[in-house]
Amino acid sequence: MWKPRFNFIRIHYAWILLCSLSAFPVLYTYGNLTAEDALLFGCSASTESGLNPVDVKDLKTYQQVYLYVVPIITNMMFLNAIVVPVRLFWFRQRLRQAGIAREVARNDEEEARPATRRESQETAVIDEQAPALAPAPSPPFSAPQRTTTITFDDKAIASGYSRSEKQVLRIPNPRESDRGAPITEIEPGLRRSYTEEADRETLGGIEYRALKLLLKFVFGYFFGLHFFGAICLLPWIHNAPSKYLDVLAESGVGATWWAFYSAQTMSNNLGFALTPDSMASFKDATWPLLVMTFLAFAGNTCYPVFLRCIIWLTSLMVPKNSQTRETIQFILDHPRRCYTLLFPSRPTWILFGIVVILNFVDVVLIIVLDLDNPAVNDLPVGPRILSSLFQAASARHTGTATLSLVDVNPAVQFSLLTMMYIAVFPIAISVRASNTYEERTIGIWAREENLNEDNGVSYVMVHVRNQLTFDLWYIFLGTFLICIAESTLIMDVAEPTFSIFAVLFEVTSAYANVGLSLGGPSGLVSMSGHYTIFSKVVICAMMIRGRHRLHCRDRGRIQPTGIRGV
């Protein structure tokens, strides 16, 4: 009978689908949303896409809370962090099995010892009862004299292990007994020591300790990022100028709830906003834009960079010869063995450089191409640069907007579309390129034809071409299907916002899980909110498929075949 194989990618698909479908009992049952809009909200929240068919501020509080929680439990950082305790559980299971096997071996040895003693006693009794026999005479024999003798050092015999330092002899470590033999017995007080954490660390080795320590890093980073964003925005909004508070009052949103929700939507790269114009009302607010821009980077593309930086800084603060320092160094030296989204030093620096270059180019394009555009140049130079930086970050991550995207230069719109599409490329290429770091030698990845793995540029370009081949036909197919379903709107000259480019922009945003949209006639919701049921289902399919284009089988999700030292 056929049984499905459970691996990370299938479990990930199932979890995302489950969270998406949970929108029906949670959002749809209240009655203020249609079934297709509830599904679109569920898929958008579960994939961090941020395309809203209805203005988020019009939802009930419990529905907004749902849209707060779901992006957290489906976030890329959270789901990859879950792999760490899974691996720890696997380690504990293997160690428990090893402990049971050793206990059985010990019991068998104890049962064998009395039988051996009984056989020796019976043999001795028989020897005593047997009559003494005179030895038969034998011819005289003179053995040759041996002049070679062996003399043992009394101190060596007394100590059992000590030898001269100049002699070549392995000194058994404290865990070994019986002169260097493996552990075969457990002291009576330590019969169940294999279930104790200290002994797990001893038997599991440095990799087990590394996973335990990494668990604290990844979850501390994830929840700490949300907390950091909230404590930065909360004092500001409560002391903000009246024009910002008036925006929240008109939207019926509390200042505290806005701070917590905005921190969540930026940290998770969700893109939902409690204000109808996204973040356009705050485009000249320096502090929240700085904080939100940092959260957008820290929650997505720069996550591997910042995580490695934190681990490296921690290594500088612990004693050099401590076990913690050794464990941290193992994480830094073998990052992909421990965690999916932690890379070696060189790929991390390359990733950081790519992020800086892409954002710099995007900011320059937004500023230069819209120098005479009132939609952009109504701000002073400083706030305009910051607003452009925020928009550049949003184009690859959150999908929030400080600019009216319909009114910007068409070249800027095209650059934003391009940036959305390549948003996942830096991390995706880092994942694939760093797979060779450990996986290539153990055969997880098949060797591709005409691929020179020693040429870094050639190797990366091959993966770029593969990524393009993997993605483009999904985007073109989705655009084609929506053009068929929405042909009436696209051909209506009275609706200039609906065009083939706008459809392509929406599909790319959904597939890239970004959430930017050129909007519809109302301008308060995403363009997909005005689509027919069929087109909304296509958008949902694009979101779910695009959510999984980064995930692949790699060392971060595969258990080792054995534990050394057990």
Automatic annotation (TrEMBL):
The superkingdom listed in its UniProt entry is Eukaryota
Write out the annotated subcellular location: Membrane
Cited InterPro entries: Cat_transpt, K/Na_transp_Trk1/HKT1, Trk1_fungi, TrkH_K-transport
Q: Where is the composition biased (Basic and acidic residues)?
A: 104-121
Query: What is one GO cellular-component annotation here?
Result: plasma membrane
Membrane-traversing stretches: 12-31, 65-90, 213-237, 289-313, 349-369, 411-431, 472-491, 524-544
Q: How does it sit in the membrane?
A: Multi-pass membrane protein
A GO BP entry: potassium ion import across plasma membrane
Gene Ontology molecular function, alphabetical: high-affinity potassium ion transmembrane transporter activity
User: Which parts of the chain are coiled coil?
Assistant: none
Q: Where is this region: Disordered?
A: 104-145
Pfam families per UniProt: TrkH
Protein family (similarity comment):
Belongs to the TrkH potassium transport family.
Q: What is this protein called?
A: Low-affinity potassium transport protein like
Q: Which organism is it from?
A: Verticillium longisporum (Verticillium dahliae var. longisporum)
